[in-house]
Amino acid sequence: MPSESKSSEIDRSMKLPGLLFLLSAVAWLLTGTVFALLTSIKSTFPGFLANCECLTYGHISAAGSNSILYGWGGNALFGVGLWILARLGRRPIPMPVMLLIGGVFWNIAVTLGVGGIIIGDMTSVMWLEMPSYATTILAISSILIGVWGTLVYRYRQPGPVYISQLYILAALFWFPWIYITAQIFLFYLPARGVVQVVTNWWYAHNLLGLWLAPAGLGAAYYLIPKILGRPVHSYYLATVGFWSLALFVGWGGMSNLVGGPVPAWLVTVGIVASVATLLPVLIIAINHHLTVMDSFDRVAADPSLRFVVFGTISFTLASLIGCVLSLRSVSEISQFTTVMEGNSQHFVYAFFTMIMFGAFYFMMPRILNCSWPSGKLIQCHFWCSAIGITLMLIALYGSGWIQGTQMTAIGAYGDPVHGDFLQIVQNTIPWLHARTASILLISIGQLAFAANILWMLVEAARSCYCGMIGAAKDAQGEKFLPETAAS
Amino acid sequence: MKSLPIIFCGLFATLALSWAGIIWRGQEQLGGLQPMSEYYAIDAVSESFRFEKPQKDETRNPEARVGLAQQGKAQYIGLGCVSCHTQQVRRKGFGADYERGWGARQTVPRDYIRQERVLTGFSRTGPDLSNVGERRDSANWFHAHLYNPQAVSPGSTMPPYAFLYEKREITQNGERSAKALELPTDEGYEIVPTLRAEALVAYLQSLKLDYNLPEVRLPEEPQN
Hints:
B: mainly alpha
C-alpha cells in the first residue's frame, strides 16, 4: 500500500491547474464588477454611454451576471473544490494536465459567451443568456472537470471521508446535469409555453442552491475546523444537513412564479420546499456557528477565517430572508423588484464570494509556497468587501421594498395610490446611487486583493528563480567536485 | 456513505425527484395545450376544456405572431429588454396589475403556447408590456419613446435606443422621408427608423391581451 502523500506533494500537483482557475477567477471577478458598476450607473443616468449599442443596459447587465456566475463562480469553485478534494483524499491529482485542459476550455467558453452577449447574440433567458456557440463548450468542460474531481475522490487514501468532499462532489455532479437539462428544454428541444419559464426558474434556483452553495458550504466545512484545529460541532448533523439540502433545494425555485401564468400547485410546492429548507439551513448554521463560538479572537486575527465566518453568517441570513420572501403575502410586494436581486446578491456575494476569498487566502500561499506580502491589503480587502456588500444589500432590499409597496398599493376606490409609475422610479433613485457607491467600495477591495495576488506571484517567481540559480550552482558544484577530488 | 456509487445514486435521485416533480409534471399538464376559441364544453370526466363548440366567425387564440412583428421579437431578445420588463399580468387581487391598467385580465399558460421563446420576465424596473400594444396606439409614440425615452416620459430611467435610428441630411429638394419621425433635430436633418426599429415597434404593437380564452375572459365592462 502506498504511503500517504505529503501535503506539499498534493499542493504541487494542484499548482498549475490551481493557478489557472484562481487567476482567471480573479480576472472574471474584476470584469464582472466593471460591468456591474456600469450597469448601476446606467440605472440612474440612462444617457451614460448610451450611443454604444454593445454597452446598452440589457447587454451589460447580463454580461455582468454571467461573468460573476460562470467566470468567477465557476473558476473559484473548481480551483478551491478540487484542491480541497485532493487535500482530504491525501493524494496528488492524477494527470493534472486534464484539469488544465478543462479549465482552458471553460474559460474559452465563458469568454465566447460574455462576448456574444455584448455583441447582441444573447438569448434573454435569465442566467442562460450565453449564445449556443459557447454553451456546448461550457457543458463539456464542466463534465471533464467533474470527472476529474470524481477520480480524485475515487483514488483517495483509505481513511475517514469528510462532509466537505460530499458537498464538492455534489456541486461538480449537479452542475452539468442542471445545465444540460436547461439547455435542452429551453433551446434545443424547447418546451411549449410556460414550461420554459418553469425550467428557467428550476435552473436559476439550483445554480445557486445546488452549485455555488454546496461549494461554499464545503469550503467552509473544510476551512473552519482546519484553521481552528477542532472538529465540526456535530458530524452526524452535518450528514443530515447535506441530504436534506439536496432533497429540498431543487423544488424551491417555483415560489418565484407566484401570480404568474402557471398552475397554483407549482407555486405551493415551491413555498413548501423553501420553508422545508429551513431544516438544513438550521443544521448548517448550528455546525458552522457553534464550531467558531468560543474563538472569536481567532476569527478576528486570521485572514481566511474572517471571510469564511462572514460568508457562513450571510448564508444563514440570506436563507432566512429567502424563506420569508417565498411566502405569498410577502412576494406579492417583493416580486419583480430589486429585493429579489438583493437576495441573489446576498447568496452570490455575501455568502459564496466571501467564503471563496477566505479559501483563496488559505490556498494560494500553500500552492505557491510563499506567504502573503501585505497584511494591510488583506485588511483593506476585508473591510471594503464587508461594508460594501452590506451597503449594497441595504440599498437593494430597501429600494425594492419601497418600489414594491408603492407599486401594489391600492386606494379605497380601487385605484392605485401611486398611479404615476415614473414617480415610483424616481423614488428608488437615491437607493440606486447608494448601490453605485457600494460597488465602488467593493471594487476598491477587489483591487487590493488583485494587487496582493500579483505581488505574491512576483515574489514567488523571484524565489523560484533564485531557487533555480541556487540549484544550478549546486549542480555545477557537484559536477566540479569529483574533478577536484580527482586532481 | 463512503462508496462512490451510493453517493452518486443519492445525488442523482434527489435532483431527479425535483426534475420529475416540476418539469416533467409541468410538461405533462401544460405541454399539450392547444389554441382554442372561447366557446367550449367541459369534459365531465377530466374537467378540462376538451370540446369546442364552433360558432360563426370565431378565431382560435392565441394567434401566431408573424411577419415584421416576429422579426421584432428577435430585436427584443437581442437587446435584452427582458432585464427590465415583464410580460405577465397577475390576477386581480394579487398586486395591482389590473388597477395600473397593465391588462384587463390575468395571463394564463395558454397565452404563451405559440411563442418559441417565452419571456415572462423577472423585473419591473419598467412597466409590464403584455398589453402595451393596446395602451399605446400610435407607432410614432413608440419611435419617439425608443429614440429618447426622457423626452416622452420625463423621469424615466430607460436607456435611449438612438442607435436604432438614422440621422440623415434631407436631400436637395427638401423632401422628407415618408418614415421620418416628428422629432426636433438639427436644421436640414431628419431622423428615420432603421428596419430594426420598425420591427421592434411592430412587435411592441402586437403585444395585446384583447381576446378571450375558455379559462379566462375579459371583463364585460370596458375598463375606465
